[in-house]
Amino acid sequence: MFKKLPIVLTSEQLLDRAFKKTKKIQIIDRNALYRKKKTIIAKTESFSNFVITTLENYVKIFPSIDNLPMFYQDIIEIKINKDKLKKSLGAIDWAKKTSQMIFTKQSKMLRKTQKIDILKQKQKEIYGRITSVVKQIKKELDVLADAQNIMR
Questions:
Q1: Considering just the CA atoms, what is the radius of gyration of the chain in Å?
Q2: Cα angle for residues 10, 13, 73 (degrees, 5° grid)
Q3: Euclidean distance between CA atoms 24 and 82, whole angstroms
Q4: Is the CA virtual torsion 70, 72, 78, 80 positive or negative?
């Protein structure tokens, strides 16, 4: 039942892995302008998608506390506090939705822009905003990691 729980990363680990994935991306195109534009867009998509899917997996795969047997509910209540865990899952879901909204709004601007310096600026904005959202849920990720360790 609890073997499927994903390893919960800290906010720093999550961001480090997302940035590492972006460094590996290379786009091949004859036109240098389009190559740079496509690379910036691909890196931004990769970063955003990694953060969003990771947070989504935490919320989806983590079992619903109310549906657990009473034994496990009592353990969670004693060790962690059920309400705290629910708040943490809610905050992580909020971060996922907010990151998705940021990426959706900003990616439209990325696709329309032709100037590389503006593209890089928009890319930094997306990275910064999503990073800020992930750092806001640092404590909630720690609570979820503690719950995961207890449940395993």
A1: 18
A2: 25
A3: 40
A4: negative
The CATH number, out of the four listed (2.40.50.100, 1.20.120.1190, 2.40.160.60, 1.10.340.30), of the domain defined by the range 11-151:
1.20.120.1190
Half-sphere exposure of 24 (CA within 13 A, CB side): 7
Structure tokens at 46: 């990769």
Other beta carbons within 10 Å of 127: 18
Cα-Cα-Cα-Cα torsion 130, 133, 137, 142, nearest 10 degrees, comes to 20
| Predicted confidence (pLDDT) per residue in 91-141, tens digit | 999 999 999 999 999 888 888 888 889 999 999 999 999 999 999 999 999
60 vs 73: CA distance, rounded Å: 18
Residue 62 near residue 54 (C-beta atoms within 8 A): no
Closest CA relative to residue 54, chosen from 103, 105, 11: 11
Q: On the CB side of 80, how many CA atoms lie within 13 Å of its CA?
A: 24
Contact yes or no for 14/21 (Cβ under 8 A): no
Q: Global pTM?
A: 0.88
Confidence at residue 113, expressed as pLDDT on a 0 to 100 scale: 86
